[in-house]
Amino acid sequence: MKLDVIKLDGGKAGDIELDAELFGLEPRTDILHRVVRWQRNNAQAGTHKVKTRSETSYSTKKIYRQKGTGGARHGDRNAPIFRKGGIYKGPTPRSHGHDLTKKFRKLGLRHALSAKAKAGELVVIENADSEGKTAALAKQVKDLGWKRALVIDGASVNEGFARAARNIEGLDILPTMGANVYDILKRDTLVITKAGVEALEARLK
C-alpha cells in the first residue's frame, strides 16, 4: 500500500510503499487485547499489602475466658472479625506479570500498525528534525491537526525534536525499539518517520 509522505510544515515529500505484512493486516481485537493486557500487567507495581493478625498492634492476651460467658470463643483482639484486627487473605506484594511469546508480541505490534493504517490515523513524515523551539513545533502540530499524537522515529530520537515536544500536551516521541501496542492504540494519530518505517520493517520481519 502507498501512502503520501509529508514534511512537518505540511508540504509533500513524495510517497512511500508500506509493507502489507505490517500495515495491511485485518486488525484482530483479541490479539491487541492480549498484548495490551500483558503490557499493563507487567507495569503494575504489585506493592499492595495489608496486615495479618500476626502484624496488628493489639495485645495477644486472651480477651475473656474460654467457657461460661455465653459468648463465642475468642483468643485475642487481632482476629479478623474484630475492628482493627488483622485482614484475612488480603493482598500481599506479588508480580502481576505473565509471559507472552516474542512471536506473539511482534504479531500484536503488526496488528496495531495495521489498525491505525486502516482507520486512516497513520501519517508518514520525511523526518522529525527540529531546532528545539517548542513554540515553532507547537504551531506546526496545530496546523497539521494532531491533537493526541505519537511520533515514532528511527533507531534514535532527534534531540531537538524531543526537547521541543517535551512541553507540548498530547505529543510523544519514541525510538523504534520503544514502539509498543499500548502507546500506539492510546493516541489518535500515529506519526512515523521514513527512517522509523524502515526500522520497523527490519524489526518485525
TrEMBL record:
Q: Where is this region: Disordered?
A: 65-98
User: Keyword Ribonucleoprotein on this protein?
Assistant: yes
Q: Name one GO molecular function term.
A: rRNA binding
Q: Which HAMAP family match?
A: Ribosomal_uL4_B
Residue runs in coiled coils: none
User: Tell me, what is an example of a GO biological process annotation in this record?
Assistant: translation
Q: Which UniProt keywords apply?
A: Ribonucleoprotein, Ribosomal protein, RNA-binding, rRNA-binding
Family statement: Belongs to the universal ribosomal protein uL4 family.
Q: What does this protein do?
A: Forms part of the polypeptide exit tunnel. One of the primary rRNA binding proteins, this protein initially binds near the 5'-end of the 23S rRNA. It is important during the early stages of 50S assembly. It makes multiple contacts with different domains of the 23S rRNA in the assembled 50S subunit and ribosome.
Q: Which residues form the signal peptide?
A: none
Name the source's superkingdom: Bacteria
Q: What is this protein's name?
A: Large ribosomal subunit protein uL4
Quaternary context:
Part of the 50S ribosomal subunit.
Pfam families for this protein = Ribosomal_L4
